[in-house]
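Table 4 source record.
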Amino acid sequence: MAIYMVEKIIKGLLLVDVRGRITLGPETVALRAKMKQLFDAGQTRIIMDLGEVTYIDSSGLSTFVAIYATARRMGGDLKLLHLPRGVHQLLQITRLITVFEVYEDLEVAQRSFAAATPEA
């Protein structure tokens, strides 16, 4: 199954719905290209919904780390939403669960950006 991505802006945040397999090859190339396009457009506050991702390999994990690092470097953040059980286990095994903020509720994920914004 090919990767499928849809992005939309909700309350000033970018929600990227990702479906399919995220593996070495066309899938990770497509995800990196899409995220580069969005970063170039100034989108750095990102919630990535992975509820319909069926598999992630090591190349897919490194893609998420690269997206996270780029967002942070640009003053934004990447938060993950609706992790399937296998993806959650993979993040636990690799200890990346300590790097990414993971949410099961979109509204809670959205509020986490407001909580992280320093007061002016």
